[in-house]
Amino acid sequence: MNNMHNFNPGPAALPDEVKRRAKEEGFNIDNGNLSIMEYSHRSKEYEAIHFGTQEKIKQILKVPDNFDILFLQGGASLQFAMIPMNFLTPGKKAGYVLSGSWSEKAYEEALRCGESYVYASSAEKQYRSIPNIYSWEPNENTAYFHLTSNNTIYGTQWYQYPQHHHDLPVCIDMSSDIFSRPIDWSKVDFIYAGAQKNAGPAGVTIVIVKKEWLESANDNIPKIMSYRTHQQKNSLYHTPPTFSVFIMGLMMDWIIDQGGVDKLHERNAQKANLIYSLMDQSDHFYLPHAEKHSRSMMNITFRLPSVELEQLFLTRAMDEGFLGLKGHRSVGGCRISLYNAVTTESTKILTEYMANFRQQHTC
Ligand SMILES: *Cc1c(COP(=O)(O)O)cnc(C)c1O
Fold this sequence. Notes:
This protein is α/β, with parallel strands linked by helices. The chain has helices spanning 16-26, 44-61, 75-87, 101-113, 211-214, 227-232, 242-257, 260-280, 307-319, 344-360; strands at residues 5-6, 67-72, 93-98, 115-121, 142-148, 150-151, 156-157, 170-173, 190-194, 205-210, 287-288, 299-303, 322-323, 334-337. Pyridoxal-5'-phosphate binds next to helix 3.
């Protein structure tokens, strides 16, 4: 196994410890006769996993009591539609901050549900930075703002969320940086994340919503689309993705073992710094897409001096056991994803590869 270094953008690396426990414990219930996948979601065995995982998330992220934690399906992409269905009530508008492809997709879904507008955007700067929203004025009757905390494809990240801007509710897509750092709950009303980048396997989506805001949600939508349906049934309204929740629970144990999100934040900053320093000293050989003040700690998107060199860089990397360094098909180039499960050791080995490659190809 361990000549491989997994930098996949998502689904992404899982810690060895989580995989070991998944094999051992996931298939060893009832003296090894059953796997967790074969239990009813109404059983006490599954309930312990379900509620235990919610408890651990609450502990790790210090979620205040006035928020509910939901486990849903359909990925972050379903949230793009569910948020406006629930909160973009008639007569209201939703303000979207565009900072990359995922926020564009969220905005497109909102447009299909009601009146929405672009609150701020860095599209004209090729999404190289997080847009500045402080000089902007929201439209009247704005129901909420939506932003994307980490832009997985362009490699930018919000360092600080806006202080409750004009007192309007804030929804944040945290799919690619949840659990990578602490969350300041005084600045958010609703967060969501597909688990498959930083929280476990695909199939489960975490939603954390302020109870008070949920009370104002639209009820006049299909039941399965209503957050309140899931809230009232403790995310057991219908069959949840039991195996994904189980693995996510193991991931939460691992995060606690690592010392929690403060420790992971420190480590993630170190890892990102190793790569960015090398790039900054490469004489523009490795050119990060993001402007310095918006650089992501999770996804480093970059170009080399030519498409041919990029190709060579990627092919050699593959031969040496580095997985997942190709850029997203929409922007090309290369990308290094440094989620929680990527070790400092793997990151160092990658920087050695990059330094060697740089030496062999002067430009
Ligand atoms: C990956 C990603 C998504 C899409 O998630 P799905 O679970 O595939 O729907 C949405 N937003 C961000 C920021 C992402 O990184």
